[in-house]
Amino acid sequence: MALSIGDKAPDFNLFNTEKKEVKLSDYSGKNVVVLFFPLAFTGVCTTELCSIRDNMNVYSGLNAEVVAISVDSLFTLEKFKAEQAYNFPLLSDFNSETAAAYGALYDNFVLGMKNVAKRSAFVVDGEGIIRYAEVLESAGDLPNFEAVQKALASLS
Question: Domain total for the chain?
Answer without folding.
Answer: 1
